[in-house]
Amino acid sequence: MVVETKISQFDSIALDSGATLMPVEIAWESYGQLNAEKSNAILVTHAFTGDAHAAGISHDTGKPGWWDNMIGPGKAFDTDRYFVICSNVLGGCQGTTGPACTNPATGKPYGKAFPVITIRDMVRLQRMLVSSLGITRLLCVAGGSMGGMQALEWAVSFPEMLLSCIPIATTWRHSAQQIAFNEVGRQAIMADPDWNEGDYYDTKPPARGLAVARMVGHITYMSDESMREKFGRRLREKDKFGFDFGVDFEVESYLRYRGSQFVSRFDANSYLYITKAEDYFDLANGTGALVDAFRTVQTRFLVISFTSDWLYPSYQSQEIVRVLRKLNGDVAYCDLPSNYGHDAFLVDVAEQTELVRGFLSSTARSARAV
After folding, report:
1. What are the catalytic residues?
2. Are 19 and 55 members of one domain?
3. Which domain range does residue 224 map to?
4. pLDDT tens by residue, 316-370
């Protein structure tokens, strides 16, 4: 299935910061067919460095979508039954308005003049897209990592538009450790002289800093066991140490490769803005009372975590589940065994598929019964 990314434009969007973006564009793709009642729509939300290309083969790049193993005919998000939408987040760099886009007030890229954004702002723009398609209620919003944050925000901000929610490998607010890892990445970018206070679009981008930030991120996405199995202490195309600062170990080569690949497809300023949006995210709005956030929510939930995920550990999903159960919410929870760490939601899909397929089927049946 070859898919094309579409762009929708809206006159303006008011942000949590008090700023307004005029106009604003959002890149999105869709898979499957919207039924006559417009009752089979599912919004899939992407993780930090993802984009709108979630499934199928991209018309532009020829590459499969980042969740192609979960979205398609007969898969977890079965496109023979459901109409699946995925959009690039606000602040991104893959077609949706972000720091690299032209500021209409200056005719130049926004850079650091781009306003601060939040997860709620991202969701607000998604809602505008969904409404523009004539969809008044989503069967489900689902996503992993930062995508899970967006799914949770949907449930709290627009409960009337949402029948069910599948937050995967995520949290309702960042811990100090999670903020710390994001800050290391930001500092790596801002310490690169080429960052130039965010004004680098006509010159050299801060490639070294962005590559280091990505390397740090990749370490957190994997588990100790998966890194041991994949790399161990194997040397890179040599039989002894070089006793220098070149590439000795396979894991060093892998991280450098990942860093260099990332630089070619992602904007450094988007990295700064999106990680800050993650860190600002707090479903309880700083009160610590998560129960108040969920008190009026009637959405069904399927919460999934993974045993080896140390970036978004299982206890953070369990906090969400405990509060929902305290409120007698309709919530199912599964902590899936996996050796892949945080990346499990992208690669370890067999058990996820069965859980999601069953949950969506029961949600669709309950919707028809109303």
Report:
1. 145, 309, 342
2. yes
3. 179-275
4. 999 999 999 999 999 999 999 999 999 999 999 999 999 999 999 999 998 876 5
